[in-house]
Amino acid sequence: MPEIQILDNDIWAERIPHLEFTELRAHAPVAWFDEPNGNSGFWAVTRLDDLVEVHRNHRIFSSQVGGTELEELERDPEAREARRTMLETDPPEHTRIRKLVSRSFTRRAIEKWESTARALIAQNVDKALSGGPVDFVETVARRFPIQMISKLLGVPDRDAEQLFHWADAVVYHADPDFSELLYDKDDTDLYRLLPFRSPSSLKVFEYAQRLAEEKKKQPEADVVSILADATDLSSREFETFFLLLVIAGNETTRHSLSHGALALAEFPDQLERLREEPTLIDTATEEILRWASPQIHFRRTAVCDTQLAGVKISAGDKVVTWYISANYDERTFVDPFTLDLGRSPNPHVTFGGGGPHICLGAWMARLEVRVFLEELVGRVRSIRLEAQPERIRSNFINGLKHLPLVLEKL
Fold this sequence. Notes:
Blueprint: H1 9-14, H2 18-27, E1 30-33, E2 42-45, H3 48-55, E3 61-62, H4 77-82, H5 93-99, H6 107-111, H7 114-128, E4 134-135, H8 136-141, H9 143-153, H10 157-171, H11 200-217, H12 223-229, H13 235-266, H14 268-276, H15 281-292, E5 297-302, E6 306-308, E7 311-313, E8 318-322, H16 323-326, H17 362-377, E9 380-385, E10 390-391, E11 400-402, E12 404-409
Parallel strand pairs: 2-8
Antiparallel strand pairs: 1-2, 3-5, 4-12, 5-8, 6-7, 9-12, 10-11
Helix pairs in contact: 7-9, 7-17, 9-10, 9-13, 10-11, 11-12, 11-13, 13-14, 13-15, 13-17, 15-17
């Protein structure tokens, strides 16, 4: 459907193209999109059931063949190998890498962090209750998940702010407020061997190696100590895994909290509803995660001729699954554009559509969102939007960089 635009980063800086996705779900749920700059184009998968089918069948829809970004790294095997993370692998390679740290991210392991999370979010929310407008992103949404993932990884507090500044520059590589080089405007070929073609990746890699050396000398009960002790990880595998954990462990929660706070300002009855019905906390957590949809899309590559929703897909075709569309699929969710903290069932795909790549940090994100909501209803009477939010220029991450709110103390 050539008249519909869903890739342009400038569109995402202004709004979420929900109208376009609604049109695609209704009339072309598996639609072909041409791409600029000589790229091959891709199939856009916008309905939830089709997305789940793709994600659960890695033998047909591979992460490893072409990676998970739109950039066609299969044309550049050297870059594909240099930039490969756990995301760009299929089982059994994916299983080998994931298994190294999976015990640190189980539900039981994450529940041990609840008291830490509660203390941190209470402290951050209290800072936002100053009586006047605050930038909720800087005061709460950005700070809290950085504090949490740093403790889990073993990153010292003194290093966290600088590390995540570099990580922001890597993943927000289309936004001039974060990155000096914009991948869709500047010549980044010099950095083609680095994740997201970002020179800031080198700073994260160098820091990761310094931290690993410290952990080897004085190991602790943290994820970096585990990775530093692993004998079957190459140096580059360690670096890219560390970068992945830093980004993924921060982004989902950061933007779930900011979009969640904005939604509660837009649907004030839902905050009061949760206060009156605290037993809704689990469904409320899932609804905020659905609503936020922090990850916009990921790519797979068809390894053989196949069909999806009756559409013929050829071997080698790029297949891009749009989480932010699937999470608002009218065929699955009743009245999806209304925040409903009691929504049940809620089979959102914020953590993926199943299969081997289900989000490693899902239980951490759930804990952080749940504790945030619990502390919010105990401290905040209402949330008011003071000025228009500013969105991150990215068709990859659905993020807010500034959110001016007034939180009225209970």
